Each structure stands twice: as structure tokens, then as C-alpha cells.
């Protein structure tokens, strides 16, 4: 079994690192570069950058931030937000990203997933899904940073996304995001079990137990976290240590 | 009074070109100016006394100063700089000390919906200031599922609540009248929102009422913020015969629309003499504590499991404020028609003042969302606004067409457009002045 990856998630708006609750009520935290370097030095396996209002404002301006990050951070970087074409993806990858995450534009035009995957390899094509529970065992995919409904069933959309060429899925629970109440383990497990590609679980981490739960019961391949790190509730090293103690296969530093 | 006519098609030629561009409705200023700091314009009306709101009423609007900055932004500036919040909090503690019950009886009333702001108010009064609040709620027209859930979350976070739900038929009739006469679908709600708490204070002999933030945070005259107490004129009236609901006088409502005195009890203002006798005091908690809607949201999530709505509200980008009532979407749609300011303008202006978004972001959000038609609950709202004979035997006769349809609603909308704001161009309505037309300005 490959290592369970620890992935700090940096949501970006304009020049700032921001954080919300249910992807709403966005709060300015500070300079994303400082946080990125801190997490890299603390032993993060990868980083996710999301320009979370790129679709909302119809803009995309992460490339400068990524270029700076790539100078000082030597772990894989996934970048999402406002990528609407193969050209956009190329631009972001040239800036120093290793993968692109696509949500809104993939829902609008699913062929984009195939185009990006063919051009840059499926390992570089991460399908980002924002999931909101609509009934027991049923979730709907949202776009525009959890603001717009799509009518798409999350499980079906994940399967289709992988068929189209996505090599990984970043799965965010809008219901749990920013609440520190734990991951939507049921959601993560259902998507994990439905597709052969790795799943990054995102949204809700408030304690080390949540990490263990989503790995063991949710079958997540990677765990993304924001609030717990940005607000310095628990240091990254301690999360890794606790995961090791729980017998999880995380990278030993 | 006459029957309410089916809205006639307006003469759109008055809106073409510039010849009528100075003509204004509602006493709005003919020159449209936008605040250089936020996105609000000088067309934004101040809070009005709804009891005297009739078709002919003239609006007082937000003040922009010599530097082009609106009063709400000036107040936001004051909140950050000159107000001594420690001193204000001491005054709150003093006020609470004077009123705090020693027997465990209720000692204050907090009105609200269980949204983020009222959640914060009642919860902090109870847990931090040791008060014993009774929360009171004036029900929305039609609850959203998430609004109802958050209301429940509020109660289950440790509050007693009295939910007042007015007679549905009367509420529908008054709302329909307010739409036809004033294009103001939210008015029936506002009567209760403003007067329920003081009336409950009289009824239950709890003389201290806490509202949340002062309306001046959004643009009422800045002088209003110098007092902690709410102006009585919003919730009292000496003479019922001078009160209008839905733009119709109380005597006419009774004579023509089959409304009885009992039906009006929930809507009528409090008696100012009784307010005086029982020494009811209505305070703004926002006078004492530095109000930040986004922080209230975080607080409500943390302490009550408050949920943002599952999708953004039509006409705006936000998911966390004013989400309880299905008619709310239409409220802001109508302000968009009447004043050129839709929901995104109000939301963005507030978030810019709080420092949560930049003006540039705000402008982009207004441009994208502001005048979007509220499709999601439209059919249900039009049914709600219909006054069929089977349910309203008397009132339905007062409408040339008791049934509300989309066409009816859009014709009405056109009647409420002011030529100085709107132009009819290429077969569609366009704003003559929009915040995104302006050259980029930073104050």
C-alpha cells in the first residue's frame, strides 16, 4: 500500500490565503507563501492551492503565487481554480504546478478532463468535486466554490470523471468544510470504493482522530486539511506522529 | 377605494434615449452616485416607518459626503478607529447588571430568526453576560428548509422561544397588497420584525429588548448610531386609523378586504403610552459590541451548528445571510427594480465595509449577480401571492386579476422602474448607471 499523503490545502483569494466555513464567510488569513513554506518545512507530502473565487470572478491569477512557491517548496503542488482550457492548464503547469484540479469547467464541459489528461497525463488531471449531502447516502456535486448546484450525483460524476481521464479526485464535503466536525467518512468511502484512482479527502478535519477515521473507514489515499493547520490548532508533525502511532502508513521523516 | 387593476403595459418610449433621464420616482436623487469605498449608491433608501408607507411616500436616501463616501462606510471607519469598545462593553455590563434577574425569570427579549446575528446576540447575552433572554420570532412568509433547521438549532443551543406566526391568509393578502401598491413583498414581515419584540415586552412585562446591529451600519443617518436605543417611531403609533398596511389604510382593509380587527393584532404597532408606562427600553447590542456579520456566522456555526444555505441566494453570491424566507429573493429583486440596487449590492457593500472583500471584488460580484431573476421559488411565490375567491371571498373581488402570474409581476416591475435609473434598449432593460461602469476608483 502506498503512503497515505498529508496535504495542506491553501485556499486563495487575490493575494491572500483565506479560510471559510462551508466554503462561505471567507476570512483573510495572510500571505500564502509563508504558510506554504511552513507546511513544507514541517513535512507536508504535497500542497493544494485553490483560487477559490476564480470561477466566481471569472479570473485566474494563481500563476505568480505558484511561481514563488515552486522556488521554495519542493513537493508536488496541485493547483485549482478558474482552469477552463488546456491552455490554462499548460500555463499553471509551466508556472511550477505538478497537477491541475478542475471542477466548474469540467462540469460545464466534461471533454476538458479528457483533453487535459491526454495532453499532460492523467496523473496531472485532478477532478475536484464539491459534494453536498442531499439525502442519506446521496450527494450532489456543486460548482463555483460550493455556490451553484449541478444536479449531478457525486458518485456517478466521479465514475464518469475517471472514465474521461481524471487520475485523482479531490473530494470536498461542503457540509463539513471549516466546521472541524470530522470528514464525511461515508462520502469518502463510497467514492473511494467506486473508482480505481486515489481520493484526497477534504473538509472537516478537527482532530487527529478524524484523520485516522477517514483513512481507515473512508479508504482515503490522501488527506487534505486547512483550518487545523492555518489556525495552528495542531502542528503538522503531531498529526503525522499520531497517524504512525495508529499504524497508518504515512511517510516517516 | 377602487379595485386594484391588472397592471397596464407601460409606455417604454419614455425610457428610450435621454429625454426622460432626469425623471425620478419615490423622491430619489436624480443624479446617481456610487460610494467610492463600497458599492452602494445614493439611491439606497433609509429605513422607513412602514406604518405610514403608501404609494406616494417619498424616500430619504443614504448620504454621500463631499469625498463621495457613504454614511455606512463612515460609520465602519468609526467602528475601527474612534469608538472605545471597552468603554461600550462596560456600559453593556452596567445595563445587564441593572436588569439581570435574580429569580431566574426572563430579563430581556431578543428578537430574531435564529440566523447568525440573532444567534450571536442571544447566545452571548446568555453565556457571557449572564442574562436570561426570551427569544421571540416573527415567522418568515415561507420557511426555507435550512432556515427552519437553523431556527431549531438556535433553540437547541439553549434558548426558549416564542414563535409568532400570523394568520396565513391575512399575511398573504397584506403581502399581495404591498406588492401591487408598493412593490414591496417583504413589508408584512417587516411589521412584525420591528414591532413584535416591543409588544412581547409589554405582554410579558420584560422591559429590556435587544436588537442586533443598528440599521445605520448599512446607511441610516450616522447620527442614529450615537444612541443605543431604537427610535420608537418604527414600532409605535398613537392613532391606528392613520396606519397603513400594504399601502391600504386600516379602515379600508376592514371595509373592502374582509379583514377583521383580530386579523390585524399581530401587525399593529405598540401603544407608545404603554411603552412609556412600562419603561420598555429597546437597545441595539451592536451599539455596545463591535458587530461583524461574518464573525456572527462563525460564532453560530461553532456554538449552534448553524448551516449556510446549500446554494447561493439568487441575486447574490452569499450563502450565510438572510436565508430563512423564500420570499426574500423577491424582496431584493424588487429593490433592484426600484432603486437599481439588488442583493449583491447590499451584501458586497457590507462585506467591503467589514474588510472581508475588496471594492474591486465587490464590483465584480454586483456585475455578475445583482439583477438576476429569482427563479428558484418563483412559482411557489406567485401561488402565495394569488388571492383566489375560494380562499379570499371578499378580498379577491378587489383585484381585477386575483391570480398572480409572472407576466403580472413583470408588468408591475416595469411600473415601478424610474426613468432616471433604467433605459429600454435593444428590447431589454439596462441600468443607466451601474457601479461597474465607473472608472476604477479607490478612496
Automatic annotation (TrEMBL), chain A:
Keywords: Amino-acid biosynthesis, Histidine biosynthesis, Lyase. GO terms for molecular function: imidazoleglycerol-phosphate synthase activity; lyase activity. Pathway: Amino-acid biosynthesis; L-histidine biosynthesis; L-histidine from 5-phospho-alpha-D-ribose 1-diphosphate: step 5/9. SUPFAM superfamilies: Ribulose-phoshate binding barrel. InterPro entries: Aldolase_TIM, His_biosynth, HisF, IGPS_HisA/HisF, RibuloseP-bd_barrel. Its EC number is 4.3.2.10. This is imidazole glycerol-phosphate synthase. It comes from Azospira restricta. The lineage of its organism: Bacteria, Pseudomonadati, Pseudomonadota, Betaproteobacteria, Rhodocyclales.
UniProtKB/TrEMBL annotation, chain B:
This is N-acetyl sugar amidotransferase. It comes from the Bacteria.
